[in-house]
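Subject line: Sequence and fold of a protein, written as structure tokens
Area: Proteins and the way their chains fold up in space.
Start of record: The labelled sequence and token lines come straight after this line.
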Amino acid sequence: MAAVLMPEPDLTPNDLKYTALEGEEKQRIIDHINEEHFSELVGFIKAFTPLTDLSPKQHDVRLVDIYAQGIGLQVSALPSLASDAPQSDTHYFIAFPEVITHLNELQYQYIALKQQADKKLRKKTIILAEKLFQVKSGFAVTDNMYRLLLSAPAAASDNSCFPVSEAGYAYLFDLSHNLSLQTASNSDTAAAQRTHRYYTLRKVSTNPTTGDEEAWVDVFLHGETLGAQWLAALTPKDTVKTKREVPENIAHLQQGQSLLIADETSIPTVARLLELWQNPIAPLIIYITQKAADQAYLQDRQANPLIDDALTVLPVMNANLSQGAPLAELIAHTLTQHLKSNPIHIQKVWGALETSTSKALRALLKPTLNLDRSAMIVKGYWRQD
């Protein structure tokens, strides 16, 4: 696949016969991709254009429009410290494998583009495949964290291997496989998402008796949610279905001083990161919980070898469940106060919180830490209705 260069100021998408899609959600989608999927946009440019050596530290890449035939990207040189001269922008059009007619079809074609780009760049990518796993047991880890122990059914030999060395590997579970739910139509993306939940692979171990690989999936329980109903309905020997596998974007954490920011929904990802941590510098962690008792989730020293004097965990209590700017300000204040008495240089950030909170937090951390977009990943794991 080759990108079409659109360098001439007077050359518009209409001249090239591209049809811009319309819809109320379009600008929100564009903003979301620009805010949380920067590395993917860089990957598109590296894979499909001549700019194979593009550096995130020297260039900005943004999604500027969505067309029926593909996406429009803008590449801009970041201001140079040696020159105040204005930098020109270059625009590229990258075609979808198949033409779409509505924004509801965008996700599949975007994933297809990412898969093609990752293959060219030899990177791990999203897997679209249905898999069945068998429920072995389940139990409470803390007051509000429930652990599901899964294995691959004996008959499903092709499903028997979990990604043993992956940190932050998420599965998209189809809750309707176990619950009687109203099935959403293919065109109702929002309704379809309500029947699915992403849960992170917390740990992979080998059963000493059977030799089979087993996996932990930790689920935060917060009221009568669909996820809680799903867990309550499961019994040993039931099967659960997954429809997608997504590797987390954590490669930037391999070097330098890292800051990890998580709430109860994303702390299993952090726990898995600690378990597989290779960076010689221990990360600083900010852990946000509704209840103080759930802070104990990170205190399993056997599962998390980094839990010692070298690891600092800053607890943040959010008992009133406030999200957005108030919580972002509390997190930023906690970090600032810690850095005043412990002056370390934060070089990398990974965080996952409620969507509006992550957006507000990115805006607060950007001027404080002065990191480029590839070094600071703060994403939304869930959305408060």
Summary: The chain is about 25% helix and 30% strand. The first helix runs from residue 26 to 36. The helical segments are 26-36, 38-48, 106-121, 189-193, 226-233, 267-275, 325-341, 355-369.
